[in-house]
Amino acid sequence: xxxxxxxxxxxxxxxxxxxxxxxxxxxxxxxxxxxxxxxxxxxxxxxxxxxxxxxxxxxxxxxxxxxxxxxxxxxxxxxxxxxxxxxxxxxxxxxxxxxxxxxxxxxxxxxxxxxxxxxxxxxxxxxxxxxxxxxxxxxxxxxxxxxxxxxxxxxxxxxxxxxxxxxxxxxxxxxxxxxxxxxxxxxxxxxxxxxxxxxxxxxxxxxxxxxxxxxxxxxxxxxxxxxxxxxxxxxxxxxxxxxxxxxxxxxxxxxxxxxxxxxxxxxxxxxxxxxxxxxxxxxxxxxxxxxxxxxxxxxxxxxxxxxxxxxxxxxxxxxxxxxxxxxxxxxxxxxxxxxxxxxxxxxxxxxx
Length: 352
Hints:
This protein is mostly beta strands and 352 residues long. It contains three helices and 26 strands.
């Protein structure tokens, strides 16, 4: 294991699970080259998909960059918006944020967000996201870089399932986005291309099960080590969190546009210990991702001066996003295997 890397799971030792406290939901606006995001991944009762994200980034040379990205996929519509914002403000408790086009407001009980976004008439979003059961982070939530942990860090905090009520208007057409979703508050406390060369992300929901996975592979300087964290919800209860997970690309095809080998068959696996009964649990999902929602050239979506900084470090980030029907196979202890059919958002990010 690299001495330059201190993974959240290693620092946690035997106590992988930590609850999400109110202070965990505060915007930190960390100094230095930090990027902080709050992202909501939504699956509607009609089988449509949407995500909404607010980004605060200090990577630039001058003022922080504030951005929202949003997507709606379904009913023959596939739209993605990425817009720079200004006038970013936090609430006195730092748990709610707003800018010109958008607000993310946390209630006093710290279990429900209200999200409002308006971009001219092209995109209007309004929904409530109420946490189901509890959130989690792995140990203290942070993986540190550098021998003395001072180079930087990555932090993730999850609400693995929530109930969603609201609407989205895309180019004048309204959709009910009532359903379920996943919320992630993430901080990258150093320049993204120094953290990882690859990322994989999964959000799966069925009637009785939800699975999430977030994996990154460190750059060669930090040992090309895969850091993975995930969670399993069964019948609206957080059953367990896990770090012995993997996103395995079983077959790939070269994308000549980008030079990256893109998966056309993926096996996702989870392995952990249940929180209440300390039984082993495993889960697997195997897909042939067909519905490619988007291939995002990240440098096309960031301001000019940021683009120049990233290009100077020879990074060419692309994000591939899919939304497919999928089947999860879940086993807890000696119980019979549970087979769950649902919808899954999956994402593969290539940075260098």
